Model the fold of this input.
Amino acid sequence: MAGHSKWANIQHRKGRQDEKRQRIWTRVVREIMVAARTGGGDVSANPRLRLAIEKAKAANMPTDTIKRNVDKATGNLEGVSYEEIRYEGYGIGGAAIILDTMTDNRVRTVAEVRHALSKHGGNLGTEGSVAFQFKHCGQLIFAPGTSEDQVMEVALEAGAEDVITDEDGAIEVLTSPADFEAVKNALEAAGLVADMAEVTLRAENSIALTGEDAVKMQKLLDVLEDLDDVQNVFHNAEFED
Done:
């Protein structure tokens, strides 16, 4: 089925993440610690921890650093205890924003999030105010030029929910969170490696922003992503050329 063009936005997002590569270790460490604390330190029995360690290795984090943080989270070493808090709000043009944070001080975190939003044209919403606009799912995105037939055959056979072909030729595979790892492994076994693969919150609809609105929204997103306690920023804005 055809979908709205997202490839330019995906590449834009990846570029922004690459610019902030030095922050990735901090966020990955938090994700490892929370995953290990909530699901245990046994990688074979903890899918969330497996994905976090995969991210850590992709960011060239040493194995001993990974192990040390798993040990901290499971009580084998003394460490900071983080809690997960989700915030919902609005950006420029009414664009929906969801922030996933990990913090050891929720009073500090909510103050920083509220200040960043209000200073840059957004506002903090209540729980559930925008969450209905997003779907929790596994998402794998393949670059234009990838064989659509092959991706569709392998993905659907492995349990994917949908395969969407973008008008630019990019291919998006959607799975349930539980099936993400199996579908990803099946695709990779077939030689199909996604440009982006993650369990995420996918916007069910988008708001196109251009000109000054696009600039303001990108500034707001940059500020939010730079907050120390923010792990992930999800939104439904699309930046048009």
Q: What stands out?
A: The chain is about 40% helix and 25% strand. The radius of gyration is 18 Å. The longest helix spans residues 24-39. The longest strand covers residues 134-142.
